[in-house]
Design goal:
The chain is an alpha/beta fold. It has one domain: Alpha-Beta Barrel (TIM Barrel). It contains 13 helices and 15 strands. Helix 5 packs parallel to helix 13, helix 10 crosses helix 11 and helix 12 packs across helix 13. The chain binds ligand FNR. Ligand FNR binds next to loops.
């Protein structure tokens, strides 16, 4: 195992980061705690996503847990993402026939069992030795899309053999050859959409990561990138015009992740995006940034009636702070077609590998189905803006 010490200050002009976890130099050894994972029976005794976090923390080295939990700056935006859900309450409708509840929907034309995707998060082998393969297994069992990170610790080709519904998240490097190769591998491995992350041209100010070196298992590395990361740097000079090149080398639908403003949303549409993800990287980039749920309605309204390059109506998804099925209903009511889930996937992995991710999502899924029916909707498309209103007591904490 290695310790990745993060330099206290980014070198001047350093081109952002190769991938989040790969920064820094190995400096020594540490102990990676991995007490036994929970089995199916023990997992079935968990009934909320919140229960997973402490169980996961107990099974990871504290520095790894901190990395996954981490945020930029004071952590205000990371917390605000979750608080934003408390600012909305339901206005349920009753006396409607909810005998047949169907949670399925489509994302970019692909049918999925629920409007929930696995967000791209790097190096799943930090949480469990089976890494992204375990996540892919859970996505297959649940019939949802896994978005594989450029920082994956499992190869694109290995995932292709497991998860039938898979999109690839791209970080764009100064080396266009490397960027193009990643795209080509994703296409060859049957990934059906490209998710370009636009909110990380500069690395966020992550104080915890700077303070504490991460201790990680030896196999927890970003295998899609060259072993020698010294020449690998993210492009910092991307503009809307750059998308033309990407679209010329990729036949896949293009999803832009990290959009939070209506003007950017319209520009994204004008430059060939097929879908947008309202995201702030889980509060890991710009501290003080708007909560994603607060940004969502403006973005959704801005692209209403617009179409993506592929000809379909432009779709809007969101992520950040989704922990409950009720959160999913609120996001859909405020304009999202689907949500993505980040940290809880890592908690599920660390708690019980594939079965842990499966259980974690079954809980969100189950509560989503229940809340949808209680709001008077039998399917995601019936969830409307009228089903939520601003919370008259916005500071009320969760019980
Ligand atoms: C991320 N995220 C992320 N995003 C991305 O586009 N590429 C990546 O490689 C990563 N890596 C990553 C690692 C870890 C440990 C975390 C927690 C997050 C951001 C991720 O896709 C998503 O936007 C947030 O995680 C959503 O917020 P929640 O669900 O974690 O609150």
């Amino acid at each position: 195992m290695t310790t990745g010490a993060v330099p206290s200050v980014e070198p001047p002009g350093a081109a952002a980061h190769a991938i989040e976890v790969a920064r820094g130099q190995p400096t020594g050894d540490g102990v990676v705690a991995r007490p036994p994972y929970l089995g199916r029976e023990e997992l079935d005794a968990l009934f909320s996503v919140e229960e997973f976090e402490p169980l996961a923390a107990a099974r990871m080295h504290p520095t790894t847990y901190q990395y996954i939990r981490g945020w930029a700056g004071t952590g205000w935006t990371a917390a605000e993402n979750m608080r934003a859900f408390q600012r909305w309450v339901f206005r349920p409708r009753f006396m409607r026939d909810v005998t047949h509840l169907d949670t399925s929907t489509t994302v970019l034309g692909e049918t999925v069992a629920a409007p929930i995707l696995f967000a791209p998060t790097s190096v799943h082998k930090l949480a469990h030795p089976h890494g992204e393969a375990a996540t892919a297994g859970a996505a297959r069992a649940l019939d949802i899309v896994q978005v594989l990170s450029t920082g994956s610790s499992t190869s694109l080709e290995d995932i292709a053999g497991i998860g039938p519904k898979r999109w690839f998240q791209l970080y764009w490097y100064t080396d266009r050859g490397l960027t193009r190769e990643l795209v080509e591998r994703a296409v060859a491995a049957g990934f059906t959409a490209l998710v370009l992350t636009v909110d990380a041209p500069v690395i966020g100010w992550r104080e915890t990561e700077r303070r504490t070196a991460m201790v990680k298992p030896d196999d927890a590395t970003a295998v899609l990138l060259p072993e020698d990361l010294s020449g690998v740097a993210q492009a910092t000079d991307l503009t809307w015009e750059s998308l033309e090149w990407l679209r010329s080398v990729s036949p896949l639908p293009l999803v832009l992740k990290g959009i939070g403003r209506s003007d950017d949303a319209r520009l994204a549409a004008a430059h060939g995006a097929d879908a947008l993800i309202v995201s702030n990287h889980g509060g890991r980039q710009l501290d003080g940034g708007i909560a994603t749920l607060d940004a969502l309605p403006g973005v959704a309204a801005a692209v209403e009636g617009l179409h993506g390059a592929g000809g379909r109506p432009l779709e809007v998804y969101m992520d950040g702070g989704v922990r409950r099925g009720t959160d999913v209903v609120k996001a859909l009511a405020l304009g999202a077609r689907a949500v993505l889930i980040g940290r809880p996937v890592q908690w599920g992995l660390a708690t019980g590998g594939e079965a842990g991710v499966l259980r974690m999502l079954e809980l969100i899924f189950g509560e989503f189905r229940s809340a949808m029916g209680l709001c008077g909707a039998t399917r995601p498309s019936e969830i409307t803006r009228a089903m939520v209103t601003r919370n008259p007591e916005p500071t009320a904490p969760r019980v």
